[in-house]
Amino acid sequence: MSLNEEPWGLSGVRVVLVEPSHPGNVGAVARAMKTMAVRDLVLVNPARYPSAEATARASGADDILAAAPVVETVDEALAGCIFVMGTTARRRHLPWPVVDAAGGAERLLKERVQGPVALLFGREHSGLTNEEVERCNALVRIPANPAYSSLNLAAAAQILCYELYRQSGEGEPLADAGQAPRVEATVDEVSGMLEHLRRVATAVEFLDPQSPRLLMRRLGRLFNRARLERTEVQILRGLLAAVERKLRPGAAVDGQSGDSAGPYEGNGP
User: Fold this and answer.
1) Phi, psi (5° rounding) for residue 68?
2) What fold, for 187-255?
């Protein structure tokens, strides 16, 4: 279903901007929302709105702007919501439940099951007032560089909408749908490859069997961390078999065949 068809996107999550001073920020927030399939925007007493600049900065998300109610008060914007998550960049004098972006999205999605929820953004320069914070059930803070923690309104909205999108399952899986399924190498296949590697390393005098130290253990740990695919094991076995043939034309090291591992033919991913 395309974004131009109804319904689309993440319903029940309301993004509320309180007195945004720059119309460009309003458009940029709309763009951030649409890229993350968040569709419900409410504006509280915005300056210079509607605005051609807001539409331009929305870059195709002007349908979000067109559907956004413009209200006079925060109470109007939050009407009907059962849970409100306020954004804050500073610590408050009174203790308040504060979570990071991932935790904030998780809580909003959990509460959304019971009814509409709101994500409340304050003014660009001064944020939310104490009275507005008191309307919130919890606060969300995005960790940032302590020496320069000033996030643009649209940047903050993008981060939080991304977390909502990621956790809601609205997006497509990252893996290419046409990609062949990953086939992990089995433990015995990796063990066989490591034994093959040990033989070749001994034959080229890289490994001293009388004083092996921790070489094979370290190599085993390396390959176990890598989580090899079956095709990758076959490639390595083919390479090792080619080394054996160069060492002893017509025969494998110690007369062994290397478990029938032939040269890699380039087949498979």
Assistant:
1) -80, 120
2) Helicase, Ruva Protein; domain 3 (1.10.8)
- CA-based torsion, 2, 8, 13, 14: positive or negative: positive
CA-based nearest residue to 23, from 47, 42, 59: 47
Determine the Cα angle at 57 with ends 51 and 62, to 5°: 70
3-state secondary structure of 67: helix
Which class does domain 10-168 fall in?
Answer: alpha beta
Distance of CA 160 to the CA centre of its chain: 12
Q: Which residues contact 245 (CB under 8 A, 6 or more apart)?
A: 252
Q: How many CB atoms lie within 10 A of CB 66?
A: 11
Say if residue 5's pLDDT is above 60. no
pTM of the model: 0.69
The token pair that represents 173 in the structure block: 């899986």
Domain ranges of the chain: 10-168, 187-255
150 pLDDT higher than 90:
no
Specify the higher pLDDT residue, 248 or 172: 248
Helix residue ranges, H only, the chain: 23-35, 52-58, 62-67, 74-78, 101-112, 130-133, 153-168, 187-203, 215-226, 230-247
Mean pLDDT, residues 69-86: 96
Largest CA distance in the chain: 87
Q: Is residue 268 within 8 Å of 231, Cβ to Cβ? A: yes
